[in-house]
Write a structure and sequence with these properties.
Elements (H helix, E strand, L loop, with lengths): L8 H10 L11 E5 L3 H8 L4 H10 L2 E5 L2 E5 L2 H19 L6 H13 L5 H5 L4 E2 L5 E2 L4 H12 L2 E5 L6 H14 L5 E6 L15 H19 L2 H10 L2 E5 L11 E5 L7 H8 L7 E6 L13 H8 L6 E5 L9 H15 L2 H13 L1
Parallel strand pairs: 6-10, 6-11, 7-8, 7-9, 9-10
Antiparallel strand pairs: 1-3, 2-3, 4-5
Helix pairs in contact: 2-4, 3-5, 7-8, 8-9, 11-12
Length: 359
């Protein structure tokens, strides 16, 4: 919770006097919202009014505080959006959901994309509670669709850029299924492909050689399950982390299987993986088709599967974009910039410019 959670009504009155007073321009109407719980109202404002400032900056509105009320001024469309946003955030607080600064940013993205969306339908869709008592839930419309797809289908593909929660949400869903005894085993795998650089000889036995490629999966696992419990589950085989090559010849029954970095599978590897699925099992395949590290001329198994299996009943494809990024806010900007750069033919133009510079 924000530090403001401990403020009482007197403190809110004091803050009202020190907070800047907004007088709407003569050609603007204002929207006033009233809130009945001083403690929740202070949480809505955020630490040092951080949530309010985020909304002002993102939507181009001005928000003044008057007791336990907010006055929103600005263009009518943005006013209405800010009012809906603040009302729904307050409703989440009343339902016991803690609002962090990231949640405010995610909420703005959601409502900008769909004005009819209900934040409670997304944020209150609890997937899993981590070892740190943190609620893992969707943070965007596509993440909500992804979670629903995993619930309803036995094979789900999550395709999109880095940081959109594809693997993280899949692992949370797998752990939830494991804890509810819906499956007896959780299998995490990824192809052992170097990301654009040659690592050379790696010391140790086979397990030690492939471990660096699997480290991101271990990191996500330890973020959700405390270290000792994760170690015990790994030792018992309840959770298995392995390179994709180890899947050949196996049939996985009553398992939740996740294939990460699937853009680096070959066509043969993807077919091999998909045919490992046994009775009572579910598979989630994640990848980013813009970050393929296969040798030149090798077709990505993920790109091929997207075409071959697009209309297959029982299989779902969910696509993510930069609006679904839940890492540092600059990651979203970086992804959008690179997409704009590549789609605009800038790579070719840059190449021509570089040749001209050397002549």
């Amino acid at each position: 919770m924000a530090d403001g959670a401990n403020l009482n009504a007197d403190e809110i009155q004091r803050r009202q006097r020190t907070y800047r007073t907004i007088s709407p321009a003569s050609n603007e109407d204002s929207l006033e919202l009233h809130f009945d719980d001083p403690r929740l109202f202070s949480e809505l404002l955020g630490q040092q009014d951080g949530h309010i400032r985020t909304i002002e900056q993102a939507l181009g509105v001005r928000i003044g505080v008057n007791g336990s009320a907010l006055k929103i001024s600005g263009a009518h469309e943005e006013q209405a959006l800010a009012g809906k946003l603040l009302g729904e955030l307050y409703d989440l607080l009343k339902r016991g959901y803690p609002i962090y600064s990231g949640d405010v940013e995610y909420s703005i993205r959601i409502l900008r994309a769909d004005r009819d969306a209900e934040l409670k339908d997304i944020f209150l869709d609890q997937v899993y509670i981590s070892a740190h008592k943190r609620i893992i839930s969707p943070k965007s419309l596509n993440q909500k669709a992804y979670v629903e797809a995993i619930r309803r289908h036995d094979i789900v593909f999550g395709i999109g850029p880095a940081g959109t929660g594809k693997t993280y949400l899949a692992m949370a869903m797998a752990l939830a299924a494991l804890m509810k005894n819906q499956v007896t085993r959780m299998v995490l795998c990824r192809p052992a492909v170097e990301a654009g650089e040659k690592l050379g000889f790696l010391p140790g036995d086979l397990a030690e050689k492939v471990n660096p490629y699997l480290r991101p999966l271990y990191d996500a696992l330890h973020d959700m399950v405390d270290f000792d419990r994760a170690r015990r589950m790994l030792e018992r085989g309840t959770i298995e982390v392995a390179p994709l090559a180890f899947m050949r010849g196996r049939t996985l029954n009553d398992s939740f299987i996740i294939l990460d970095e699937a853009q680096n599978t070959t066509s043969e590897q993807m077919k091999m993986f998909l045919t490992r699925l046994g009775y009572g099992s579910k598979a989630v395949i994640t990848g980013d088709v813009t970050q393929i590290d296969l040798p030149s001329g090798k077709l990505s198994g993920l790109k091929e599967a997207r075409t071959v299996l697009a209309d297959t009943p029982g299989i779902s494809f969910v696509h993510f974009n930069e609006r679904d990024v839940v890492r540092h806010r600059l990651v979203q900007t970086v992804i959008a910039a690179y997409e704009s750069f590549s789609s605009g033919g800038a790579f070719e133009n840059a190449g021509v410019a570089a040749k001209s510079a050397t002549n």
